[in-house]
Amino acid sequence: MALLVAIFNECFKNCYFIPSWKEAVGIGVPKSGKPRNLQANQPSERVWQAGLIHTLYTLGVADRLILIIHNYINNGEFTFRHENTYSSKRLIKARVPRGSTLSPLLYLAYTNDIPRPQTGDHVALFVDDTTFYFRSFSVGHIIRAFSRPLTS
Prior knowledge:
- By secondary structure, the protein is of the alpha+beta class.
- Helix content is 34%, strand content 28%.
- The mean pLDDT is 75.
- InterPro entries: RT_dom.
């Protein structure tokens, strides 16, 4: 256990993430009724990495922690597995790895600067989902709200 703690401490001290810790395996999940068409279970969430790093600086996150996060999200690799067959390794681009404790926090930091509407429209942020919605007793009002560009 002491050796593992020493390895973690050295990684953090040097802002380094061991490459094998940044590898992911996507697993093919058959679509119902269509066993030959597989849908990949994505090993990561789509995020503009440079924008995330900028946001972390804007939020006042310590430089050393940002360097560790930058090393963590960059140059990750994934393979796709179907039964016992693996694809060649591919670089993960514009993504934050899924399944770690840190990933939802990074996504929340990334979406933290989404403007909140002032016009009665609503924004709901939850882990890796963003939803714009409207509430009204009038269907006509909702239709007009959806017809309006989101930038107004």
